[in-house]
Design a protein that fits this description.
By secondary structure, the protein is α+β, with helices and mostly antiparallel strands. The chain has one domain. It is 23% helix and 27% strand. It has seven helices and 13 strands. Strands 1, 2, 3, 6, 7, 8, 9, 10, 11, 12 and 13 form an eleven-stranded mixed β-sheet that branches. Strand 2 and strand 3 form a beta hairpin. About 7% of the residues have low confidence.
């Protein structure tokens, strides 16, 4: 058993090594050169307030550029995909209006760039009745009201603060206590830290092994079951997020790493709260595409309504391949090595939040 887990973690390290950060950025735990003071609670409140005010102004004015200027990372990619699909369909980009509670801020004890912090806050979508179930990113059941972790970053001294990701905590999941000092600052965990159950930089790869292969994966020995691990596997296996494979076609899905930054904060028990982004790819295609053979068109593949706006005109019934990609943000709890479990995951990695959405679709 332990040998199987070791092999999976070795493979996860190799997979993590295949990703890279965009030029000019740095991952948390290895700050870029150039000292910068740690973010204060007052600064975090100002950034959070400025962002929510800009979002509301963008809704009132229908100003898509204002929305994009306030976003980076996963948030910008998903918003940009929605904007482009609205333009292609000659529709106005529809943005939800939110009400927020009073946020708590997680302030890293780091100096250097990128500077970042997390706002932990309850968010409610206006006009959505309380208790209403909603299908969120990757088909995960999320309510119109819930706890979200909003990660803001400033990539360089002259740059403004932008929202990089928003990840919602599904019902039944919880956020651990952090190792905050009296000023609210939390130690940053190096992504290569080996004092945890798994290095933080392979958390996503271990989650992906369970999402791709289910409870039978060796990674399931170190990754807890739940809506964002075994639940995603069951969703994909059962429905492929609404894609249907005609008779003779094949379908597949894969959760894979991304080039977006990863960040980690120390939890009160010595573990880490890790933030990262992954791509979820879903595909229906004729077998010859997968087998690199001579491709002959098969029966028409039905395009789900949510994908249609991302496809060029005339691609409503592809006969070779239909691909969809979601860019997803996650938060996961990586316990300290040797943790016997405290009732939240039996000493396993617990994936506790998800965000993001559609970023790409292609049909042929």
């Amino acid at each position: 058993m332990l040998a199987g887990v070791a092999l999976v973690m070795t493979a996860a390290l190799a997979a993590a090594g295949c990703t890279s950060a965009p030029a000019g950025t740095a991952t948390a735990g290895a700050p870029a050169a150039g000292a910068a003071p740690a973010v204060t609670a007052a600064q975090a409140r100002q950034v959070f307030g400025s962002y929510t005010a800009a979002w509301n102004r963008a809704i009132a004015a229908g100003d898509q550029a204002l929305v994009l200027a306030s976003a980076s990372g996963v948030e910008r990619a998903v918003l940009n995909a929605a904007r482009e699909s609205a333009q292609d369909s000659r529709e106005r980009l529809s943005l939800p209006r939110y009400r927020y509670g009073t946020p708590a801020f997680y302030l890293p004890e780091q100096t250097g760039y990128p500077r970042w912090f997390v706002a932990d806050v309850t968010r409610t979508a206006a006009g959505v009745p309380a208790g209403t179930g909603m299908s969120g990113p990757a088909g995960v059941a999320l309510g119109g009201s819930g706890r979200v972790l909003m990660l803001f970053e400033q990539t360089r001294p002259a740059g403004g603060w932008q929202l990089a990701s928003t990840s919602q905590v599904p019902p039944g999941e919880s956020v651990p206590a952090l190792a905050a000092d009296g000023a609210g600052h939390v130690p940053v965990v190096p992504l290569s830290d080996t004092a945890l159950l798994a290095r933080p930089d392979v958390t996503g790869a271990l989650q992906a092994a369970v999402v791709d292969d289910g409870p039978a994966s060796a990674a399931a020995q170190v990754v807890a079951g739940g809506p964002l691990t075994t639940g995603l596997y069951r969703t994909e296996r059962a429905s492929l997020l609404g894609l249907r494979a005609p008779r003779g076609d094949v379908y597949l899905w894969e959760l894979e790493g991304s080039h977006y930054g990863r960040f980690a904060l120390r939890t009160a028990d010595g573990g880490a709260l890790v933030f990262y982004a992954m791509y979820l790819n879903t595909t229906v295609e004729v077998p010859a595409v997968l087998n690199k053979g001579v491709v002959k068109p098969g029966p028409p593949i039905t395009v789900p309504g949510y994908l249609a706006p991302l496809l060029p005109p005339g691609k409503t019934a592809p006969r070779v391949s239909l691909e969809a990609q979601q860019l997803l943000s996650f938060a996961a709890v990586d316990p300290p090595s040797g943790d016997g479990g405290d009732g939240t995951g039996n000493g396993k990695i617990q994936v506790i939040a998800i965000g993001g959405g559609l970023s790409y679709a292609n049909a042929s």
